[in-house]
Write a structure and sequence with these properties.
431 residues; alpha/beta; 15 strands; Rossmann fold; 7-stranded parallel β-sheet; 8-stranded mixed β-sheet
């Protein structure tokens, strides 16, 4: 199907897709939507920003039977923000459809969630821990749901949520359809997948080119300068619509946000140590454009769609270099352009080389007197083809290959050439 109008969706869904401005499915949507419509368990592996969410939300909305007063599908997300985002997108698709959905996330009142479940939602979206809680208390009749979606499965594994998912998945029907979406499929995740998925279809896209179109990748040397001061230089030289500044730890995020605020730069922060109310309030403030700069940990790099991000700044390189791709994927979304700025010092050169091997075309730049200037390539001397200078040419002419050669002549000749060149350089210096 090359266009959404080619699908035979129900009228409410066709109207919703049109109102969202969707015309053609993305590659992952084109592959996954038919599989989910047919009920074929599958793994969808694609990088961030490729439209994974709608590749399962759209076909699930199509398959729900509103007249059946029971839970039919469960969708899990590893973070509260991603779960809220999925719930919001689902509501846009199911307006005026009679389909009931419910959000179940940590940090909210459990009794209130249990009361809402009495209305028998058709779809539940939530974090693994809260879904498990509701299933174990009997508030969530999970045994009737034949569809389970695990979004950002590798992150769920990293955060230790696979055990929660296993606990409630084991209560679901034997013929359970499972759809797993992930940027990567870690080896340690495979036993869990094998337990519930029998020879699933594996759709893998963008394996070789995970980079976002319309991106400029700037590499800025710190050169022994205080990294925070260099960051301030960078921030003062740009005027972003919204910039996310990534650190590796919650403590570093707190300290950096405090430092920037002390420099007169109004800065928000987003990381896992904020309580549920603080994170909800921060996300609202970000969407209301109260901040131009957000300091965040990698929590914000996976799945959370913060609209309007024009710049991503790597204050620190991620410890897992694959996360570089997730971070920069926060910008240049929906056909817009974006800028990714990475601070580095010489000790991080090996990591930069590894990122370049992922296909990232860094431009070596710096900020001088508030202006951006392009620098020489980092390895310009090392990579420059060696050219024969006048001394090389003279040495080659003076010390010719002998008519009759003996074993080891190449080594001896090379030594003679080097001795000649040294003498010539000394003479040149004296002049």
């Amino acid at each position: 199907m090359s266009r959404y109008t080619d699908y035979q969706f129900k009228p409410f869904l066709r109207d919703a897709i049109e109102s969202l401005g969707f015309t053609s499915p993305t590659p992952i949507q084109k592959e996954m939507i038919p599989l989910i419509l047919k009920g074929t368990s599958a793994i969808g592996q694609a990088h961030t920003g490729t439209g994974k969410s709608h590749s399962f939300l759209i076909p699930i909305a199509e398959r729900i039977i509103p007249n059946e007063d029971q839970l039919q599908a469960v969708i899990t997300a590893p973070t509260r923000e991603l779960a809220i985002q999925l719930s919001d997108e689902l509501k846009k698709l199911t307006e005026n459809s009679g389909i009931r959905s419910l959000l179940l996330i940590g940090g909210t009142d459990k009794k209130r969630s249990a009361d809402k479940l009495k209305s028998n939602p058709h779809i539940v979206i939530g974090t693994p821990g809260r879904i498990r809680d509701m299933a174990e208390t009997g508030s969530l009749a999970i045994h009737t749901a034949s569809i389970l979606v695990i979004d950002e499965a590798d992150l769920a594994f990293d955060m230790g949520f696979i055990e929660d998912i296993d606990q409630f998945a084991s209560r679901m029907p034997n013929d359970l359809e499972m759809y797993v979406f992930s940027a990567t499929i870690p080896e340690k995740l495979k036993p869990f997948l094998g337990k519930y998925m029998d020879s699933p279809m594996h759709v893998q896209l963008d394996a070789k080119k995970p980079l976002t179109e319309g991106m400029h990748y700037s590499l800025v040397p710190v050169r022994g300068m205080d990294r925070r001061k260099k960051l301030v230089q960078v921030l003062e030289s740009i005027n972003p619509y919204l910039a996310i500044i990534f650190t590796n730890t919650k403590q570093n995020a707190d300290e950096l946000a405090s430092y920037l605020s002390g420099q007169g730069i109004k800065t928000g922060k987003l990381h896992g140590d904020l309580n549920a109310r603080e994170r909800t309030r921060m996300m609202k403030q970000i969407r209301d454009l109260e901040y131009q700069f957000i300091v965040a940990t990698d929590l914000a790099a996976r799945g959370i769609d913060i609209p309007g991000v024009s710049h991503v700044i790597n204050y620190e390189l991620p410890e897992d270099l694959e996360f570089y791709i997730h971070r920069v994927g926060r910008t240049a979304r929906a056909g817009l352009e974006g800028i990714a700025i990475t601070l580095y010092d010489p000790s991080e050169d090996d990591a930069i080389v590894k990122i370049e091997k992922l296909g990232v075309p860094f431009v070596h730049e710096d900020v001088k007197n508030g202006e951006w200037v392009q620098l020489k390539e980092r390895h310009s001397r090392k990579n420059r083809p060696k050219e024969q200078d006048e001394i090389d040419k003279k040495a080659a002419a003076m010390i010719k290959k002998p008519t009759k050669v003996k074993p080891g002549y190449k080594k001896k000749r090379a030594q003679e050439v080097e001795r000649f060149k040294k003498r010539q350089r000394r003479l040149t210096k004296k002049k």
